[in-house]
Design goal:
This protein has a 4-stranded antiparallel beta sheet, covered by helices on one side. The chain has helices spanning 11-24, 50-68, 84-87, and strands at 2-10, 27-34, 37-43, 73-81. It is an alpha+beta fold and 89 residues long. A hairpin with a 2-residue loop joins β2 (27-34) and β3. It has 3 helices and 4 strands; from the N terminus they run βαββαβα. The mean pLDDT is 76. α1 packs antiparallel against α2 (50-68). It has one domain (2-83).
């Protein structure tokens, strides 16, 4: 089951927040939303090994840096796999 979350971010914290979300490993999709419109929508594979995620993160971050230069504030919306271990407690 997947869960969606939204995080308002400023230009200065956008890249660090995306980097943090990618490192978590359970993020399936990252969207950058500005004024109600998706500026970028990037699917991430949840089955990819850690090394592949790092390789994929570089172009992902470059795209977010380019867009961050154009917007002052935006929202990051993520879709992630729900942690099934927490549900069993």
């Amino acid at each position: 089951m997947s869960v969606e979350e939204r995080f308002p971010v400023s230009r200065s914290s956008l890249v660090e927040k995306v980097r943090e979300l990618v490192r978590q490993g359970n993020t399936r999709r990252v969207r950058l939303i500005h004024k109600g419109k998706a500026l970028i929508d990037i699917p991430l594979s949840i089955d990819a090994p850690a090394a592949a995620v790092v390789v994929l993160a570089a172009p992902l971050l470059a795209a977010f840096v380019a867009i961050a230069a154009l917007v002052k504030e935006c929202t990051i919306e993520i879709e992630k796999e729900e942690d099934t271990n927490e549900n069993k407690k």
